[in-house]
Amino acid sequence: MNTRPRSSQIVQPARRIALEVITAVREDDAYANLLLPTKLARAKLQTNDAALATELTYGTLRMRGYYDRVISLAAGRPVEKIDPLVLDVLELATHQLLGMRTASHAAVNESVELARLVSSRSATGFVNGVLRTITRSEPDVWRDRVIADAKDNDSRLSAEYSHPTWIIRAFRRSLSAAGVSADALEDELRDLLDADNVPPRLGLVALPGLADRDDITIPGRATRRSPIGFSATGGDPSDIAEVRAGTVRVQDEGSQLAALALSRAASIAPGEKWLDLCAGPGGKSALLAAEARLGGAVLTANEPVPARAQLVRNALEAISDPPEVLELDGTTIGAMRPESFDRILVDAPCTGLGALRRRPEARWRKSPRDVADLVQLQERLIDSAVEALRRGGILAYVTCSPHVAETRGQVVGALSRWGDRLTALDTGTVVAEISGETSERASEASQVQLWPHIDATDAMFIALFRKAD
């Protein structure tokens, strides 16, 4: 009688969950930041195991491009010729061997069992052979081999830092447009790529009037630029009572500054009407709603996708008399409600290249073809917002991307299309007054581009405009 334990009993739950998420991201375009917490909650893992599953998942997704090159060299075949499920197993194992320094026997043995779970018996021998080959050389040796295999400078950067070449070129153009000199450009580009591959600190925001950040205790707590934000290196945010109540929220400091730039660009007159045009999933809406409540303004949120609109409603539950949430096409609101709002946030759909450290799989999900469609949508949303804005009103255009076409290009385009009916405000001064410091790369007063390697935030872009009276 065969008494050998089933593979599912041998494999550590953290590894099994990580593989399930990695596979779902590849097969179903799942979002790791949404799927992983759900799986962790269902599995009821202890804190250490949950932390392991998180590192396994995000670390593998982040460095997938680099690990595929290692696997190809070790297997002696292109990864395109490896069964996708088996490749998922190999990528997960390679992260443990080269990125985490997990004991070789543990990484190899459990990965073989994972292969047994998801594929054929022959796959286990293949996985064992590839991983044994990887263990015979130190990580630095594999790095040198991968870099030596690249054909040009951008390919070398792509291999070493696990970013598609088109993103590397977009970052280079963005840094150059931000004023980085030609002599310093390549070094700073490497700093940016490196920062994208470092897990960010947990960012939190205390909603004004509902919570005080100074009352919150969490391991590794620190503050920097946002006057209402703080960050931490450890701990489960759900352990904080205010987080469970919704009065303290998980939010990157860059996103906080983007929302505050609109709410604090000018004194709030009681009765003002505000609009968050692209509100999902609701983090900035919650902050704007809290700011509006304190100033006597009224916020309306809009999110056309019903599931995301419900996330916005959930985010606003902590606000007494929560704002109305519309489910309209944002490009039509200007025609439907002309000159109806005093302040409008256009947190436009974008490539998300500014949040690759937080959503690492986005680097493999987007392509240059996506940029053109997104730029057209951003233009239409800006135009709709200008139409919906009252005379003298303030518009904040925000993207979580440093791509020139989605940032500086949109500022130039908006000012060109609207002529003297729209003027750029001194966004740099507004953000500096809020944060108490000037961004090192704020080369133009009319706009602010934050950077992970300089500001320790997502690469948020912020531009403020005023509509002529």
Straight-line distance between termini: 86 Å
Helix content: 40-55%
Number of helices: 22
Average the pLDDT over all residues and give the rounded result: 93
Overall shape: it is: globular
What oligomeric state best describes the polypeptide chains here? single chain
**What value does the Rg take, in angstroms?**
24 Å
Q: What structural class do the secondary elements suggest?
A: alpha/beta
User: Got a strand count?
Assistant: 11
Strand content: 5-15%
Largest sheet: 8 strands, mixed
Uncertain runs are 1-8
Overview of the molecule:
There is one protein chain. This protein has 22 helices and eleven strands. The chain has 469 residues and is an alpha/beta fold. It is globular and about 70 Å long. The termini are far apart.
Keywords:
three-stranded antiparallel β-sheet; eight-stranded mixed β-sheet; disordered N terminus; 469 residues; globular
Summarize the structure.
The protein is of the alpha/beta class and 469 residues long. The chain has 22 helices and eleven strands.
What's the SSE blueprint?
Elements: H1 7-10, H2 13-28, H3 32-43, H4 47-62, H5 64-75, H6 84-99, H7 104-118, H8 121-135, H9 139-148, H10 153-161, H11 165-177, H12 182-196, E1 202-206, E2 229-232, H13 241-245, E3 248-250, H14 253-263, E4 273-276, H15 283-295, E5 298-302, H16 306-315, E6 324-326, H17 333-336, E7 341-347, H18 362-365, H19 368-388, E8 389-399, H20 408-418, E9 422-424, H21 427-435, E10 447-449, H22 452-455, E11 461-467
Parallel strand pairs: 4-5, 4-7, 5-6, 7-8
Antiparallel strand pairs: 1-2, 1-3, 8-11, 9-11, 10-11
Helix pairs in contact: 2-3, 2-4, 2-6, 4-6, 5-6, 5-8, 5-9, 6-7, 6-8, 7-8, 9-10, 11-12, 14-15, 14-21, 19-20
